[in-house]
Structure formats: structure tokens, C-alpha cells
Amino acid sequence: QKEVEQDPGPLSVPEGAIVSLNCTYSNSAFQYFMWYRQYSRKGPELLMYTYSSGNKEDGRFTAQVDKSSKYISLFIRDSQPSDSATYLCAMTPSSNTGKLIFGQGTTLQVKP
Amino acid sequence: SAVISQKPSRDICQRGTSLTIQCQVDSQVTMMFWYRQQPGQSLTLIATANQGSEATYESGFVIDKFPISRPNLTFSTLTVSNMSPEDSSIYLCSVEARDRFNGYTFGSGTRLTVV
To answer: I need a surface site. Which of A27, A70, B45, B91 has the fewest CB within 10 A?
Structure first.
């Protein structure tokens, strides 16, 4: 069993829809949670970072962490075609190791 | 956030040869990280590079295959040695996003194809 599970999709939604992306994990030591967006043939771009449980909002993006369920989510409101990309969750138990454990990534397509 | 420049962006190499990938950061950082992203797979940490000390390799990765240099606080190289088609991947370097922990920033990656 992988430490971090993420449905690879693909996920296809119409423009303007609310998108929900999720990851589950097995290691209760994870404390730092990140979401990355990766366009084709590009490096991952950091979207959101959350420490421990709770919610964090940044524009159209909201990240949620539920440590009791070992479940994290990324919500995208008013999705746009430019949001079409692969979204990767990543997590680590410590802020100074640099060892991120990534999910497989979910491919999202937002259709005009 | 730190800005990372990575070179080359892509290369096609013959099996048995070696390729050195460069990573330049616009600010001084203590640790630099090298990841591999195999086709259709997620990212896996290869090693951590600290200035002035030997790199620390993750399980499954060895120095003879992936030698790393870290001559100063803004630069690192990763060499993929004696390449085989199985080494065809995207190689990425990463650093902490800011002085206070706020996630990690990645370079744009080096897309390596071994033929």
C-alpha cells in the first residue's frame, strides 16, 4: 500500500464548476501538506501549503486537512480552462527534511 | 519564493553515457533536493545535497549512479551515470520556498530520454 493515495483521474468538468481533489494517507506523522499544479512538460508549481489540520483559502483555491481521517482536499471554485493540469498532493512529517511524499497526481480537464 | 534555474531542459542521450544536470537558485539555501519523476509516476526523492558535505541518498539510489556536487549555497549538479533506457525520466531540483517554511519550490525539470 502506498503512503499517499490519489485518484489519477482523469477528471473532466465544465468551466465554472467546483472541483474537489483528494488524497488519503497512512502515516499519522505527516504534519505539512502541500498541493502542486503541474502543467504538461513543466515542473510542479506550489499552490497551497497547510500545517496540521484546518482550512486555508487563497483566491479560488481552498485546502482542507483532516488529520483524524488522514484525508486532505483541494477545492477549486469557478474552474477555468487554464486550471487544466495535473494536481499533486505532497506531505512530510517535518519541515526540514525536504523529503516530500507525493500522490500520483490527478489530471484535471476543464472544458470551455 | 526562491527562483530555480535548471539546465538542460531536455536531452536525448545514448545508453552508457552520462549527463550532468545543473540547478541554480537565486538565493542562498542550506539544502537542495533532487527528485525523479518517471513516466506516469509521481515524484521520488533521490538525494539531499548540503553544501560542504556528502549528499544523503534515499533507499534505492546510490552515489555511483547519481553523483551530486554542491560547491556553494546557490548551486548543485546531479549526474546520471552509465545511463540505460530505464533512466528516462524528468529530473527536478527543489529548495524550501522561503526562509520560514512555506513548502518547497521546484525547478522546471530536465526531461531525459535515453536511447
So the answer is: A27
Residues of chain A with C-beta less than 8 angstroms from the C-beta of B101: 32, 95-96
Query: B45–A98: do the CB atoms touch at under 8 Å?
Result: yes
**Do the chains contact at B106 and A45, CB–CB below 8 Å?**
yes
Q: Please list the pLDDT of chain B residue by residue as tens digits (115 residues).
A: 788 999 999 999 999 999 999 999 999 998 999 999 998 888 999 999 988 888 999 999 999 999 999 999 999 999 999 999 999 999 999 998 765 567 889 999 999 999 9
Name the residue of chain A whose CA is nearest to B40's CA: A104
